[in-house]
Amino acid sequence: MVAAAGEGAAGTVITTRPRRSVVFTYGTLKRGFGNHALMEELTRSGDAVFLGSYRTQEKYPLVCGPYRVPFLLNLPGSGERVTGELYGVSSGGLARMDELEGTSRGHYERLPIKLVVLDEGETEEAEAYFAHSSYARELWMKNGRRGLCAYSEKEARGYVKRNERPQHLTFLDHIHLFVSSASDEPSDSSDPLTFN
């Protein structure tokens, strides 16, 4: 897809392709999960392309927070090697993903990550949405320092989309209530008021 064209020296036409970011998705943006409709929309508009299934090169904690929302924690060396999907995304597509992930509101941080192609061993550098550092350690402690290797249908059972959650609290309020709640046992309940 040609993004821009102009004249260079001696009247030659110069075309540039849109710059693409490479983003690792490990939770609800994956195929078959609650927010994948965004990736489908971006793919249809030419703002995203699926690049394959990957695994993190290092171990990272992948945990569930309030409303079964998945969080990758930027605590390399802890947890498991996490599997997910890789997408090439245009700057416009990346802005849409940043909005969904609340990067400007302190929900997630988009940071570099090294990946390995599943079954091939080839490495790739990308970015991933990590839980914001302001609460990541608390989530790790709340989950008993146990991480997942993949966000699967089992973990997604009970996931509640943003517009179906109580609206009188911010997402950060929900996270702080979750990490400060007394219960340490995960719940399979789909009750939107259940934080575990």
From TrEMBL:
Residues 23-133 form the Gamma-glutamylcyclotransferase AIG2-like domain. GO terms for cellular component: cytosol. GO terms for molecular function: acyltransferase activity; gamma-glutamylaminecyclotransferase activity. The active site is at E101 (proton acceptor). Keywords: Acyltransferase, Transferase. It holds the Pfam family GGACT. Signal peptide: none annotated. Putative gamma-glutamylcyclotransferase. Belongs to the gamma-glutamylcyclotransferase family. This is Gamma-glutamylcyclotransferase family protein. It comes from Malus domestica (Apple).
